[in-house]
Amino acid sequence: MPALDFIKEPIAADLVRYEEFLRTSLKSGNSLTEAMLDYIFESRGKAVRPVLSLLTASVFAGGKPLGERSLLAAMLVEMMHTASLVHDDVIDQSDLRRGKPSVKAVWKSRSAVLIGDYILAKSYGIGMKTGHHDIVDCTVDAMTDMCDGELLQSEHSGKFDLTREVYDRIIYLKTACLIGVSSGTGAMSVDTGAEAVDRMRRFGDALGMAFQIKDDILDYHPSSETGKTPCADIREGKINLPFLLVLERSPQGLREEMRGLTDRASTDDNAAQRLSSLITGNGGIELATVEMDAYIRTALDILSTLPPSRYRQSLEALCPYITSRSY
């Protein structure tokens, strides 16, 4: 797996400028707000979305330093993702996030909801005040899609009516869309043409689909760094891709057994473990990996149309990095 340091290396200076821009933009005079922001910033994950945005901008910047538009695009996609995680932990009543106490666990649900709202309002306010409305419009559309995706998933939670078409729609809306917007607005931020923006949006969409499928796979092999309960999707009644692919290929008797186990999995550890064993034992992980790899090939094919550069190398390295990660 390529090291994240290798991926970030060509934009190292821009990442320093981005960090300063982010902290200055979200600064507050309220001590509690500042304490919560510091905790959130220090607990951020791998920052795939802003790194993707800045790398894409650099591909088309012609060697010039990235400007405020590019820093803003990176901030908007990262802060949208960050706020959604803070809110998710309230919705799911999760006390851990990446192996550390969640914001909800430290400051309780009310404050967690408010800091998530603050992050969204403050970051998008900066975008409006600085006049970069095209980037704001694009990322706000992604926020709408993320909410739609979560609601669509809730609508089908615990049901056996989920089709592959609906599954693809859910993961595109809730995950892939924002990753597509990350690369798309990165290109947009340096005022490249519409064709390049569309091409990089399609690259990010494919990468994002692979990203979510990898998350589905990791649900069966969670690491201590995620802070997640093993088989969390199963326990929450969510039919992820390994589950769905096995279900589609199973005889009626096995389908009925899986249905019964799903009904009990939220309160019965043995049922959850049995269902997990059926999915992994019937090739669910391998089948999902084939699907994930197909999206990665699509992403790499799109990158192959770009001129060779160190930035393109990093974008290419993101593909195996995402699919080989353990959390």
Please give a structural write-up.
The structure is a single chain. The chain has 327 residues and is an all-alpha fold. 75% of the residues lie in helices and 1% in strands. The protein is built from 15 helices and two strands. It has a two-stranded antiparallel sheet. A hairpin with a 2-residue loop joins β1 and β2 (100-101). The two termini are 13 Å apart.
Can you tag this structure with a few keywords?
327 residues, mainly alpha, two-stranded antiparallel sheet, 2 strands, 75% helix
Helix and strand topology:
Layout: H1 4-8, H2 12-25, H3 31-42, H4 48-60, H5 68-91, E1 96-97, E2 100-101, H6 103-129, H7 133-156, H8 164-188, H9 194-218, H10 232-235, H11 241-249, H12 252-265, H13 269-281, H14 284-303, H15 310-324
Antiparallel strand pairs: 1-2
Helix pairs in contact: 2-5, 4-5, 4-8, 4-15, 5-6, 5-7, 5-8, 7-8, 8-9, 9-14, 9-15, 11-14, 12-13, 14-15
Brief sketch in words of this structure:
With about 325 residues, this protein is an all-alpha fold. The chain has 15 helices and two strands.
Mean of residue pLDDT values: 94
Please work out how many helical segments DSSP would assign. 15
Strand content of the residues, in percent? under 5%
Distance between the terminal alpha carbons, to the nearest Å? 13 Å
Shape: globular
Structural class: mainly alpha
User: Biggest sheet, open or closed, and with what strands and sense?
Assistant: 2 strands, antiparallel
- Output the strand order for the largest sheet: 1-2
Fraction of residues in helices? over 70%
Radius of gyration: 20 Å
Quaternary structure classification: single chain
**Model regions low in confidence, pLDDT < 50 over at least 5 residues:** none
Number of strands: 2
Order of helices and strands: HHHHHEEHHHHHHHHHH
